[in-house]
Design a protein that fits this description.
Helix content is 53%, strand content 4%. By secondary structure, it is mainly alpha-helical. The protein folds into three domains: 69 residues; 114 residues, no CATH class; 34 residues, no CATH class. A two-stranded antiparallel ribbon has the order 1-2. A hairpin with a 4-residue loop joins β1 and β2. α2 crosses α3 and α7 crosses α8. GO terms for molecular function: DNA-binding transcription factor activity.
Length: 279
Amino acid sequence: MRHRQILDVAAEHPDTSIDELATMVPSATTELVERVLEEHGDPAADDDQSTTATESDPETTEQVDDPEAGSTADTTPSSGPTETDESGATPTDADGDLDADTDAEAGPEVSVSPDDLSEKQRDVLDAIAERPEATQREIGDRLGVSATTVGNRANSIEGFEWSERRQFVEVLLGEPASAVASADGSSDTAADATETTPANAEESSTKGEDTDTPGDLEAKLEALDERVAELEAATERTAERPETVFEDPELVHRIVHACLNSEAISEAEELRILKELLG
């Protein structure tokens, strides 16, 4: 890892500055090198201290008089300096700090149980469990609802995040989500990069005060979805309506002029025609 590389390079080049050490380690910055040396110690400084202590403390002998033998006995120090690796720290200390940087990311916390889910929420989770890489639109096509409805049902489940849907389903339902492999043998993960959850505006604006149950909220959201679908259908019908003669301004002008000059049309009929054209 990068921390180990920094310590090794610092031990090999004891006279090198921090800026130069940063250039010797790929992707390392001056701040990172300085922080690593502060946390683990400068191995070059540790090696210098160890060498100085060895040179300044020569092996000594103590003369101990033996009253019985009438002679002296030489004694030497029983132990030397503690052996360390080239980084200046014991392997266990460095490994412990490095392991802390590579802890596995914890999965999602699930505070609900399957019994707390409505039937429609459970249908969405079952569909995700069967095809975790599917988009909201694909799941909606399978369930016969819109992609927005799928997102609303999923987000109404406490603690659910679309980006962690696979892990959430595995933890909540206790079953591993089956990944459907693509034709080349790899799982399709493009949906994770492009899929987005509904806007935050879909969330309830009365948190802490809203007494509606999840079922009531879900019913309201579905009613809104149906209303939006009706408006979209009406807009499409309007766009498909054929153009009439009254939508041509020049032709309308001629029609009005002919009506006003014609003796066959009464004044009441003229007013009625003008009202229809202007309305």
